Amino acid sequence: MKKYISKFHYLTQDLPHRTHIEQAEIACKAGANWIQYRCFSKAEEELIREIHQIASICDDWGATLILTDHYHLLDQVDAQGVHIEDMDADFSAIREIISDEKTLGASANTIEDIQRIYASGAVDYAGCGPFSVTKTKPNDYPLLGTEGYKEIADKMTELGIDLPLLAVGGINFEDTEAVLNTGIYGIAVSAAVNSSDSPGIMIREFYKKIY
């Protein structure tokens, strides 16, 4: 079942000066229609309480709420899906657990990752990165840059892989046009918005550039 996938994904993160709830509210008020709640610092009860509040905000503004990794909580909260960061995850098994109604996203770094994700038949979109150096999610994966995305996008076309692919990891506003010109579907950002002096304005600027 084909699902709607936004071309702009906004990810919350642990910040000392702004809660995940505040981040989601700012983003939704600015027009963001896809919020990914990315939190690994809280116990399950606290996670559930926070997700309930963010889900209510997203519902008020008509935004899609995706949880990072916490698919086991989907039967307890009102979220529309999950994004799995483990590239070796069993996506078919996760799909069985969450049902066809929910959106399932997966992380990738190479065309081989994307081929495996696509072959599972279970995933609705992939986030591919990192584009550049990122402190939001430290990792040792090779930086892709615009050339890396172009190679991947071209190979996906050649192989007939019809899967929305979003660039993620270290993307700044100034990179938007060059990244989208590689042929990928969209972008996902966190720090570019969250470290901005005016996160709401930054989200609106991203939307103007992408849409």
Automatic annotation (TrEMBL):
Which of the seven top EC classes does this enzyme belong to?
transferase
Question: What Enzyme Commission number does this protein have?
Answer: 2.5.1.3
* Pfam families per record: TMP-TENI (PF02581)
Q: Which UniProt keywords apply?
A: Magnesium, Metal-binding, Thiamine biosynthesis, Transferase
GO CC field: cytoplasm
Q: Domain of life here?
A: Bacteria
UniProt name for this protein: Thiamine-phosphate synthase
Q: Please spell out the taxonomic lineage of the organism that makes this protein.
A: Bacteria, Pseudomonadati, Bacteroidota, Sphingobacteriia, Sphingobacteriales
Show where the Thiamine phosphate synthase/TenI domain sits.
Answer: 17-193
Cofactor remark from the record: Binds 1 Mg(2+) ion per subunit.
